[in-house]
Every structure is written in structure tokens, then in C-alpha cells.
Design a protein that fits this description.
Length: about 200
């Protein structure tokens, strides 16, 4: 089965390092969702008894049109697909909370204060310089992070919908929304954990 990317250690520094955050999401999506057809093809057992020389004399259906057994599909969803989605959701939820929390450690706070003070002291005469009224303050890093999290959540919904369409077709499963399938898996996954201290 496909190896899942490791869950990152969640910290505000991880979230504010937007390159690291994007790399985690990109790696997770490329190893699971972007290669969903290959991942599902790997679930089809080509032969139970080894190579049959007669198999080269007749044409077989391409693997994309062959159904995958329900147990194999279910195992793939529960052990690979849903945990990858859950890991990405946890990262985005955590970083969403960081983006809406106070950020006393923002290294640009002092610089923004200086720029704002200079802007208040500026003399604006748009008759002499039509551009003198322009001022573009630096955004706090929490606002930049919040915008990134919103964008990535949108991307995540698109990626999940496309992946789920392929899974539904290849597994020949009765139609089900991915949100419902993940919710059911999550309920089962969290209720089967032993209580702490046992």
C-alpha cells in the first residue's frame, strides 16, 4: 500500500513557515490524491497462479475498467485515503486557529508600527503628486496565514471531490458523498480507541 507522508509536528512556527506548510500539503496530495489511479491499480491482483503464457494471446480489459474488490477498496480508504485526508484537515484546522489567535511573537510588529507612524506624519498633496496618498501597510503574518488556510481549504475540497469520483467509479460502490464516508470513518475510528489510562 501507499506510504503516507509523516504527520508534521504542529506548532505556530510550522504554520507561519508557509513554504513548509504548502510542501506538506503538496506531498500528501501528490502521493495519495494526484496518483489515485495508480494507487487503485495497485489493488488489483494481476494473477493468482503466476504468469500464464496463454495470456499474451488474448486481449484483457485495461485495469482502469476492471473493478476492485470491495475488501481491498475498503482497506485502502480506511488505511490510506481517509487518514491522509484527516492529517491534512488537522493541519489546516490547527493553522486556522493559529491564524485567528493573537501573535505576540510577530517579528514585524515593530516595523509595522514605524511604517504606520510615518504614514500618519506624511503630508499628502495629491495635486503635486497624485500617488502621495497611496500607502500599503504590511499585513500581519496572521492575516497572510488566514488567507493561505482559506485557499488551501478550497483546494482540499476540489481535490477530495475529484479523488472520490475516481474511487467511486473504480470500486463500483453505491453512491455516497465523500463527506458522509469520512464522517462515518472518523466516528468509527475515534470510538474504537481505548480510553486513556488503559
Amino acid at each position: 500500500m501507499t506510504q503516507l507522508p509523516g504527520q508534521p509536528n504542529l506548532s505556530p512556527q510550522f504554520c507561519f513557515s508557509t513554504g513548509t506548510l504548502r510542501d506538506f500539503l503538496r506531498l500528501s496530495r501528490s502521493s495519495i490524491d494526484d496518483s489515485i489511479a495508480q494507487n487503485l491499480n495497485a489493488l488489483i491482483t494481476p494473477s493468482d497462479a503466476g504468469f500464464d503464457p496463454q495470456s499474451t494471446s488474448r486481449r484483457t480489459l485495461p485495469s482502469a475498467s476492471r473493478e476492485i474488490s470491495q475488501p481491498a477498496c475498503q482497506a485502502f480508504k480506511e488505511r490510506v485515503l481517509f487518514p491522509a485526508w484527516q492529517a491534512r484537515a488537522e493541519v489546516l484546522n490547527y493553522c486556522g486557529v493559529v491564524a485567528t489567535s493573537p501573535d505576540p511573537d510577530d517579528p514585524e510588529t515593530a516595523l509595522r508600527e514605524v511604517e504606520n507612524q510615518r504614514d500618519r506624519e506624511r503630508v499628502v498633496d495629491e495635486r503635486l503628486d497624485p500617488y502621495s496618498g497611496r500607502f500599503f501597510p504590511r499585513e500581519p503574518r496572521t492575516e497572510t496565514l488566514a488567507m493561505l488556510v482559506r485557499q488551501e481549504r478550497g483546494v482540499e475540497n476540489i481535490v477530495r471531490s475529484r479523488t472520490w469520483d475516481v474511487v467511486q467509479q473504480r470500486c463500483a460502490a453505491p453512491y455516497e458523498r465523500w463527506e458522509d464516508a469520512v464522517s462515518r470513518w472518523s466516528d468509527k475510528h475515534h470510538t474504537n480507541k481505548p480510553p486513556p489510562g488503559r
